[in-house]
Amino acid sequence: MKLFISTLLICLVFNSCSTSSIEKDKKTILSIMKSQEKAWSKNNIEAFMEGYWKSDSLKFFGSSGLKYGWQSTLNGYKKRYPTKDHTGTLRFKINDISQINSASYFVMGEYHLVRNIGNADGVFMIIFKKINGEWKIIADTSC
């Protein structure tokens, strides 16, 4: 009986640590996305891109197809959103954050742009991965 209770307590402690780690990860990811909202809304696309993995292996899939690389993604954003009138004010609505494994999560949600030239809305699924101790977007599907 003592062994059973000890084992049960150990399991509860490890489960509690795991849950708090997941909650901490989710909070960090949401904080990154909040920073992205602010940067985008200030028409600072470079600061918005700080949430992305600065690598040629970054994948972005949007209406113009699959693109690879951080610089290509930045260039695409700058081309499609050249002025503050185009970037407008960004708001994310997060519908789900789920752990894939201990070093990655997927985030599903909606984006809403309020703009002088007309509002824009869509959906996205992004994958965050912990790289060198930092959470970065390694893949983005937006439409």
Q: What's the end-to-end separation, in Å?
A: 57 Å
Mean pLDDT: 91
**Please, how many domains?**
1
- Strand order of the main beta sheet, please? 2-1-6-5-4-3
Secondary-structure class: alpha+beta
Morphology call? globular
CATH top level? Answer: Alpha Beta
Give Rg in angstroms: 19 Å
Which percent range fits the helix content? Answer: 40-55%
Oligomeric state of this protein = single chain
Number of helices: 4
Largest sheet entry: 6 strands, mixed
Beta-strand content estimate: 35-45%
CATH architecture: Roll
Could you give the order of the helices and strands? HHEEHHEEEE
CATH topology: Nuclear Transport Factor 2, Chain: A
How many distinct beta strands? 6
Low-pLDDT runs of 5+ residues are: 6-17
Summarize the structure.
This protein is α+β, with helices and mostly antiparallel strands. It is built from 4 helices and 6 strands, in the order ααββααββββ.
